[in-house]
Amino acid sequence: MRIGFDAPEFLWLLCLLPLFWVAAYRRRGLGVVHATVAIGLRSLVLLAIVAAIAGVQIRWHSDRVAVMYLLDQSESIDAARRREMFDFVAANVREHRHASRDDLAGVILFGREATIEVPPFSDDLPQRSQFSDGSLRTDATNLEQALQLARTAMPTDVRRRIVILTDGNQTLGQAARIADRIAADGIGIDIVPVPTQSGSDVLVEKLDMPAQIRRGQPIEARVVMTNFAAENADAPVSGRLQVTRRSGHDDQMILNQPIQLTPGKNVFPLRHTIDRAAPYTYTATFVPDDPADDARSQNNRAVAFANVRGQSRVLLIEPATEAGAWGEFADRLREENIEVVVEPSDATFSSLAQLQAYDSVILANVPRVGGDAADSLQWFNDDQIEILVRNTQQLGAGLLMIGGPDALGAGGWTGTALEKAMPVDFEIKNLKVAAVGALALVIDSSGSMDGQKMQLCKAAASEAIKMLGPSDHLGIWTFDGATREVIPMQPVAGRTHMLPMVSRITAGGGTVMYPAMERAFIGLSQTEAAVKHMIVLTDGHTTPNDFGPLTRRMKQQGITVSSVAIGKDADLALMREIASIGSGKMYHVHSPRGIPRIVMRETRRVSRPLIFEQPAGVRPQIAQDHPLIQGVGSPPPIRGYVMTTAKDSPLAQVLLSAAGPQNSQQPVLAVWQYGLGRTAVLTTDGGQRWASDWRTWDDRKKLIAQLMRWLNRPAGDAGKFTLATVVDDGQVQVVVNALDESDQYLNFLEMGASVLDPDLEPIDLRMRQTAPGRYVGSFPVDRAGNYFVHVVPEAGSAPLTTGVSVPFSAEYRIREVNRGLLEQLAAAEPRGGAAGTLAPSMASGDADPAALNPFRGGLDAIRSIQDFWPIFVLIGCCLFVGDIAVRRIRWDFSGVKRLAAKRSTKLQDADASKLQRLQTLRSIKQQAAGNAMQEPEPSAPPAASETPTVQKKPPTLGSDDAPEALSYTERLRQAKANAKR
Q1: pLDDT for the residue 822
Q2: Which is it for strands 645-646 and 424-425: parallel, antiparallel or unpaired?
Q3: Are 70 and 918 in contact (CB under 8 A)?
Q4: How many Cβ atoms are within 10 Å of 590's Cβ, its own excluded?
Q5: What is the average pLDDT score of the chain?
Q6: pLDDT of residue 433
Q7: Any idea what the Cα angle at residue 918 is, between residues 915 and 920, rounded to 5°?
Q8: Across-strand partners of 611?
Q9: pLDDT at 630
């Protein structure tokens, strides 16, 4: 620590001090003491002011060193080697850390992300067993994030150094671009190279397939593989190469042959022909004969996509309970040269790749949850709904929903992402009608329902809230030994306030169900709704009560009751009796996982009033002109449809409408553009029940054909546009080459592009022209899976669609240490210090923890500065006030002298009085002592002639002639008194 100055050039002002002293000495009027004090104070004032102007500072220098160890835990390094890193850094800290100067050490683990395992602290590192494992994703290497975290984790008042133990193969981020900023902060970087996975390994590099293929065209594909042989191993690796082709649900093995892989690259041709237009997914897999020849099986697979164009294809999904009901509708489409694939709702698509074979998807009177028995319920889960929406919004496919008694809002689709994609809302908004329906949930919350059962019951209640419309009513009651009203019977409205109430339901206690059903019955009976329904969920026996009369009273008031018996301990007889009397349905579920489906299935009962039926029929009217209905005459009457509300958007177009309740006009056919695709809703059915007269309508086939062609993803010839993708360094590069009919470059095109990742989340992709007729874009790939690329070269042109598969992380491709990056990081010179050290690799025997000393010098000393000039300004102000007081105030000390003299006199009088009393007491004591020692003598009586002698009195103490007999102490006191006097 030392004193410094921010502006030392102002210290020359101290030269004024001698001049000030001379001037002050010549002045008269003050005494010597006053003058000396005044000169001293003013000198201090001037000294404080000059120090403040010069910016006085206190500076500290720190020699402490903080070292952060960055340990690469990615899959490109052997697990055993990753464990050795902990022992290496622990031994390194014990060997070199200076405990006397309080050095710091910490550990950061990094893979796909970085995390602080041990924050910097002044002690040795813990043992390997005390480090956590398993929580870090190891399928990538993000060295940049680890360096940034180390930079911010270390304190700034010490010298800092980073030690990186890695193979240098980063799959995410760019460590080199942050190394300069780290060096600018004065942080040094040491490197300890770590070898990658060892041993023989076979890598399936890629399956090279053309992106666009014509039907019947011979295809020349190639499988590229690399054999990383072990050292001194020249023998080939034997195994089998298997190539499968998948289209929709069909898998076909097109190659299964034994092969021999020589060390290095190996290429195997794959010649075949495709006779049916569809998107195909090819998978090439290598299976070694000896597992010892292949260190990592994760990199033994490659995937490629091929899109064979042909006539338009449509996927028609029909209810699983109505197999064949939509065959006639599909035949009408086939007559218009539209290929149709019909699938039941319980065995349809499960991935986005399967939908790429179709240009449009039709949901024909399909409910979200269908079926009757508890073990046969089928439903569209959230993932499937998201796939449908993304297939339209991001990849340009068409989507049509056809009405019926189990479709749209009546089918339980309200509140889903599918409703957002449609041009209508599945609820009635502008009609002054009573509540569409009212639902009461009675849920067993006894102790036996704790755990998964209660969680799934709460999930089911939440789904019911989302399915109901804002005009519907809902109430929820729970019961154990007592009844609790979770949600009083009320309109669903905004519904967001209900979800937290459901999440607070807990389980515990006995089972008394009757009061809860009675309370729910009262809530339903007081609600004006067209349909009233109750669902009872329990897993055990309740206290004896007569539920028959209660259920009959519900039935008399038009309330239906369904029961759900959970597990084998439930009272099945009672649950069956309640459902039978209540005109509902009884479900017996052995697994709690079926509870949400059942509740969603039963919730559809309260949506039945969404259906408008008119036995006499209503005639749809053409609401506006549209290319879709050109040349189509007025449709025949229909006897029913599902009521909806057109979206309040200029993009939503109602083409056909029909009369509804209260003289309203309800949509029958509505369309709109949704993202890159188009969606449509036909609220009546396809001719099965409500639109049976349409079967004989001459323009029916024309309307259906024009509707599907308008919806379908453009399937024309891609012309001279070609699409290619390249995966490199965590990025997928998308390249489009554009030529016109005369093979001239097409420039300045506004290409639209979109990408969906494996989680169906959109990724930004912008195509930019980089050369004549060449457009390039790129997007990152940070996980294994399928990525779908959709490019529209120009308005009205057929889209270019392909898939990019990342079967395994880039970590499994790495076989060598990236020494160039490691040398670059170690060569970065920190500010004011020397470059780092590239230590021997941990693979060699030279990797001694004692050989590398990260706590050494070579770094710029850390300086801490504290400005003290404000304190000097304050000191100068205080001294200046004292200086004024000394110079301007004439101090009179006479009063103090008089007070002191008076005080001294009083003390002397008190001492004299005490001395006199002491002398008197002593004299009396001496006299008494003399009388006691003198004995009396006998005397004869005096003669008569003799005159008696008068004895003199002994002299008294204090008389003038009394002798002075003072002790030594008394004489000292008297001398002291005289001195004071």
Answers
A1: 93
A2: antiparallel
A3: no
A4: 12
A5: 83
A6: 52
A7: 110
A8: 642
A9: 86
